[in-house]
Amino acid sequence: MEGYSRKDVGCPQLLDLIPKEKEWLVKSAEETNYGLSEEKKLELRLGPPGGDWTFKQICGPTNESLLSFGFFPNTTAGATTTAPWQHQTKASFFPLMEKESCRIVELQGAEKKAFSPANTAVPNSSSAQKRTAPAPVVGWPPIRSFRKNLANGNSSKLSPESQKDFSKKPIENCPKNKFVKINMDGVPIGRKVDLKAFHSYEKLSSAVDELFRGLLAAQGDSSTNGIKKEVEGEKVISGLLDGSGEYTLVYEDNEGDRMLVGDVPWDMFVSTVKRLRVLKSSELPMLFCGSKPGKLSLDRSI
Amino acid sequence: MQTDPNPKKSKDSPSNSDSTESTQSASPFPDDVLGKVLSFLNSDKDRSSVSLVCKDWYNAERWTRTKLFIGNCYSVSPEIVATRFPKITSVTLKGKPRFSDFNLVPQNWGADVHYWLVMFAKVYPFLEELRLKRMTVSDESLEILATAFPGFRALSLMSCDGFSTDGLKSVATHCRNLTELDIQDTDIDDFNGGWLSCFPENFGSLEVLNFASLDSEVNFDALERLVSRCKSLRVLKVNKSITLDQLQRLLLRAPQLMELGTGSFQQELLPGQFGDLESAFSNCKNLRTLSGLWEVTSVYLPVLYAACTSLTFLNLSYAALRSVEFGNLIAYCPNLRRLWVLDTVEDKGLEAVGSSCPLLEELRVFPADPFDQQLHRGVTELGFVAVSRGCSKLHYVLYFCWQMTNAAVATIVQNCPNFTHFRLCIMNPGRPDYLTNEPMDEAFGAVVKTCTKLQRLSVSGLLTDLTFEYIGKHAKNLETLSVAFAGSSDLGMQCVLEGCPKLRKLEIRDCPFGNAALLSGLEKYEKMRSLWMSSCNVTITACQQLAREMPRLNVEVMKDKESDDSQADKVYVYRSVAGPRRDAPPFVLTL
User: Fold this and answer.
1) Is residue B441 a contact partner of residue B468, using CB atoms and an 8 Å limit?
2) What interface predicted TM-score (ipTM) does this complex get?
3) B183 vs A36, A51, B131, B403, B479, CA distance in Å?
4) How many CA atoms lie within 13 A of A218 on its CB side?
5) Of B590, B512, B514, whose CA–CA distance to B558 is shortest?
6) Average pLDDT of span B203-208
7) B67-83 pLDDT, tens per residue?
8) At what angle do helices B271-282 and B244-253 cross, to 10 degrees?
9) Contacts of A150 in chain B (CB under 8 A)
């Protein structure tokens, strides 16, 4: 196998491509004689030259491998290619991942091989990378994922989960956000909420209250029946979940059905909900007529 | 694990005229006496030796063994284990190769505990403890665990994956006698913290609870009540969702704690709260270990001072402290034996360690920003030297840095000749001594020559075969060796294989070792637990030859897509009495 260019023990060929002050220090001219195998790295492909993308195949024996990549930082700090040390025949660069910058890419079929330094990598433009040096090699330095990026207080939102690189799971299966639209009767402008930020129906309910309380009050002022809310200020929107309030929270699930919020465990709800609506409780009987039987619990008091 | 030995008579067994047992046996001890004596043996090594003495001793040993340790889950099968050992109550199982921690092993590689648990449910209904490391554990497996073993007490999962908080719900709900739930460094689906609320209201037997690596918020009231009920709780490591004032309330409930992992330290505290927290900490008279401390800032460090005097293990590896505030803190910790820090403390911080912690035995310095190739902050060789000067008892070090010199390492081992674990990671691969530009061979030469007790070594920097000649020649107690981006030729690996009699685990990546090197270790590999070689110079043909000549080794190869058909990109070789594994995924070629 070619590429190991250090042939004599006695005189180590030093190649220090770690940029200092953004300069590439190339100590030995010999190291810049890259052979044919290096040309491969210069092939035009999606992604910077030399970027061998190594990743994990997550979905078993299918033709598609779902991956997430981060932005591959610019490597054009002066070097022609990007092998920082002569032991490597291929630079298997490993783009450092931040969860929020992930995207799914499809690879050529890699049924038998889990590790494929992909040459069809699509760099994600919504980069979370701040580095301009060549990305590190996969698995180097040997730090476990949960230890990455503990640099300073900005890491407050970095849980071990968010520090995991693409190798763990495709973003599709465990997104960190789930934004759904939420509209309220009587309020022409809708909002969007990130359901992943709540862990319970109660929290969702109070968030809805916060989101729409002001908007609803503003609507009331401009309504024609002259009900003025200025004296009372904004009214709290409560009883969204048990039918006791003026409004009730319903949702549209992934089958297109309208459902009352609160029947199923929270996690199940988050995985099936597509959009939310805040309806006037007095209008609920109308929904009963239009919906499929069994979809709404009829024992809800209105 | 030993296979059936040839029955031999022991030449050393003392004669005993009271022997009354089977006429075929030369053992002078009645079985029950022998059994009683052997039941005192705890060490696996001793038990292995005992089992080789003769058939009677083999049998007595197998009937009295209660703790099972399997360092490589594929070295033996559940059936073999179940047949040989009928009375197991505690199992430790390790799975994937260590490099899987650094994403070098694809998902779904294996090491699934499921089939083991199914077997245990059949043959070990009295199982009490299960400790897993780098295994895949599904929720179904946890369900089995929770329901099939009525006396189950201790579950420890380190670097495991494959399960979710639903699995934890099963454990919390069903394990009535649980004393230990210890989840470390795991990669799981954390749906929500509801699992903690599944402990029954009358459940109070926990002694160890560690959920620091989970993310979701747990129900604090449930946690507080649980902690109050568990009077024997000595280890509590909470996750980041627990705030400071919540922590204070927990400490009030459990002042007897010996090990504490705090939650997030980032919270606006009112002056009264600060004082409450301070006194809560000072009330914990038994605190020996402290960890967590996410986002701790200098403002809140003083609440810890009172608890620091008795600390023997301080884990600050999630707290990015600067040298001054760290120095102030460490001055309060004169009894530290183990210290883990981030390199944000810099050399100055390490100097403070050298002057404050004379009893220090273990130091781990982790990089806060391991991929920051521009700035290269953190610690240097000076910090390491400073610690070695002040801490002569130092014997375990894990040190991540960007620069090192041969001279510094030589000084370090002169100051601390008792290293048993020396793991130096110079983070840019192939970096020479930055002052002399020479390879780092002499550094590791000094280590192996001086530290005769060395068991574990990780090398880095620019290294030629000379390093490995030194290792082969001097590291006679070496058991684990990790090599990356080092060496010049096959000779390097050959020196190690020929020279280190106690070598058990050899893991190599990105080195110019090829077929000759691989094949020079034929008989050696049977004496070892495993060999890992990735991105080296090895071909499939050579691996096939190895597999052919050594049938009791499993030779597994994983290929990178882009490489030559003949290249064996990742090779994992391990001894096994169970034959090739039956659960290998398609991307693992078993030769």
Assistant:
1) no
2) 0.85
3) 48, 36, 10, 35, 27
4) 8
5) B590
6) 96
7) 999 999 999 999 999 99
8) 40
9) 317-318, 320, 342, 366, 368-369
